[in-house]
Amino acid sequence: MIASEMMKKLISNKNSRGLIVLLMLFVLIFTMTACGNKNEAGEDALGGTGDAAMDEVLLKAVENLKDVSSLSYDMEMDMSMEVMGAAFDTLMSMDCKQIMSPVKMEILGTADMGTMGKMDMMVYAEEENGDLTMYTGMVDEAQGTSWLKQSVEVNSQQIAQYDAANSIELYASSASSIKEVGTEDVDGVKATRFDGIISGDDIGKVVEQSGVESQVGIDGTAELFKDSGNIPFSFWVDVEKEQIIKYEIDMTEVLKVALERAVENEEEGMAGMIGIKKMSTSVKVKGVNDVEDIVIPEEAKANATEITG
Predict the structure, then answer these.
(1) Whose CA, among 23, 233, 254, 273, lies 20 to 30 Å from 183?
(2) How do strand 274-288 and strand 86-99 relate by DSSP bridges?
(3) 8 A C-beta contact, residue 29 and residue 77
(4) Which own/partner pairs from 177-181 qualify as long-range (CB within 8 Å, at least 24 positions apart)?
(5) Terminal CA-CA length for the chain
(6) CA distance 116 to 11
């Protein structure tokens, strides 16, 4: 009950820097991929030029993604927080299919929230005439599935969070260092592992470019990530097929520092009341160029409530 009141307090206080970081914990995961395009100067979204010293094997695997027409993959997002000693843990497991152009996506997932229960979800997306229509279904065993419909930009945060190919290219091109660390077995495939890091300073640049500061109405929040450490990530490459078959990225430590800074000037007693335990994403590629089509359920098209604005 006390933990719930603390969460309510943060949410009700629009000037709370703690609230801003809570929002950014989720927005960052989304915008890391949404900002993965080059600008006019040829730089990536994190300010680099994509010239990290990549091994030739990894470089070829990343380049091969640009020619992929479709992907199927499993994604897990592990998000864990603690508020007033109470754990708020969510493990999202998703079965994803993606067609690159025109964009089509299917995500069938389950959010396991521990003692708070489980929730099944479905996300479909379809590009038509340059616009992307998203259908999100939330499954209730008693009341059935409720659907929402929304029109978004093709590279929007809402859809980019699930774009495995764009994520891989962004992490690889933005890394300050990448090194080969050995060979491991990934579901029966002999794969070469590469580890790299992205600095907290670069994450601050993502925050600035994402527009989240203007959305919450307070400037300067990107400073929370300055000198906050590094975000480690790993790629596993099937050398024979020259394909990346798995990647992991862990934002836990950098987000811990950002949150601590955000609440240190809060009301007396706020510091230490809320903390990040884990924030990570893992993707396993199941198939390349293996998705022939994705069909949006007629139930979604007929019954979805449209979201505007």
Answers:
(1) 254
(2) unpaired
(3) yes
(4) 177/52, 177/53, 178/52, 178/53, 178/54, 178/55, 178/58, 179/55, 180/55, 180/57, 180/58
(5) 34
(6) 19
Residues forming beta bridges with residue 101, ordered by sequence position: none
The 10s digit of each residue's pLDDT in 179-216 is 899 999 999 999 999 998 887 777 777 666 655 555 55
Residue 37 CA, distance from chain mean position: 15
The amino acid present at 63, given as its one-letter code, is E
Reduced to 3 states (helix: H, G, I; strand: E, B; else coil), residue 163 is coil
Tell which residue, 220, 219, 172, has the closest CA to residue 197: 172
**For residue 1, what are the contacts with CB-CB under 8 A and spacing of at least 6?**
none
Q: How confident is the model at residue 120 (pLDDT cuts 50, 70, 90)?
A: very high
Question: DSSP states of 268-280 as a string?
Answer: TT-TTSEEEEEEE
For residue 36, the surrounding DSSP H or E stretch is none
Predicted TM-score (pTM) of the model is: 0.76
Is residue 96 classed exposed, middle or buried when 0-12, 13-18 and 19+ CB atoms within 10 A define those classes?
A: buried
Amino acid present at 282: S
